């Protein structure tokens, strides 16, 4: 049966957003950046949760990787990969030729690192927000990694160790579904991105800048 975690109380608080204009230059120079320190956040962290078009995967570690143009992809690219909780795997590769910005959003219940391209902003958010930063500050982003701690992290870690589903699912109304099995996960096909549905050949819309992605679950 699909359950849900209790959402934390939404009080009055001041959000803070930070941008890192040199991030992708650093990534190209260093080859890889650990997400724990890639943005020099002072935020307390016990675990990570990767957010990908509504799919959420708890992880112990994650990193950005620079993909050279002479590699598997015929364009400049960067990828994100994770050391997940439990027997699951998730990764994604993004088109580095697009214009990207990365942000750290601090808020009452935690923090999130989110990245957005100009193409995604123009296609989905420009009609409502004056900038990418304003959209991310309002919680409107497609790809990101949440920093979790305390009971909020413990719930997600326990789910990851117990469940045989590939991921949790955040629905459009904010509900977080926590399927216990792989079959239960795929019963929510309407909420799963096409790139993670085996029977669907189409991927994400081009403006997302997603070149490739994978989500799976198997024996540890």
What key attributes describe this structure?
220 residues, alpha+beta, 13-stranded antiparallel sheet, 5 helices, globular
What fraction, in percent, of the residue positions are helical? 10-25%
Please give the alpha-carbon distance between the first and last residues.
23 Å
Order of helices and strands: EEHEEEEEEEHHEHEEHE
Per DSSP, the total helix count is 5
- Global structural class: alpha+beta
Largest sheet: 13 strands, antiparallel
Instruction: Estimate the strand proportion.
Output: 35-45%
Oligomer: single chain
Shape: globular
Low-confidence stretches: 1-13
C-alpha-based Rg, rounded? 17 Å
Question: What would your notes on this structure say?
Answer:
With 220 residues, the protein is α+β, with helices and mostly antiparallel strands. It has one domain. The chain has helices spanning 23-30, 118-125, 132-137, 150-162, 182-186; strands spanning 3-4, 16-19, 32-34, 47-52, 55-67, 77-84, 88-95, 100-107, 110-117, 143-148, 168-170, 176-178, 210-217. Strand 11 and strand 12 (176-178) form a beta hairpin. The longest helix has 13 residues, at 150-162. The radius of gyration is 17 Å and the shape is globular. The two termini are 23 Å apart.
